[in-house]
Amino acid sequence: MQTIYVHLANEEPFMAEVEALPAPGDQAIFCLNPRKRDGKDLHYVLAEVQQIIVPWWRISFVEVMPSGQEEEIVAFYRD
Description:
Layout: E1 2-8, E2 14-18, E3 28-35, E4 51-55, E5 59-64
Antiparallel strand pairs: 1-2, 1-5, 2-3, 3-4
C-alpha cells in the first residue's frame, strides 16, 4: 500500500491509500480509505465508504507520501 495526497480541481485535497501507483494510461485512480489530512471524513463521501474511484480529469495532481521504507540518506560533511 502507498499513501497518496490527491488534489482535486475546486475541492479540498484528501489522503488515501492505493495498492499500486497509477500507470500513465489509467483513466481513473482507485483510492482506499479516503479522508481529510487530519483523519476526518470527507463531506462528499458517506462515512461507511471505504473505496472511491476518481477520474483523472478531476485531479490536478497527486503527491506520493514517504512510506518510511526508503533508505536513509547519509550526508558527510566537515567540521
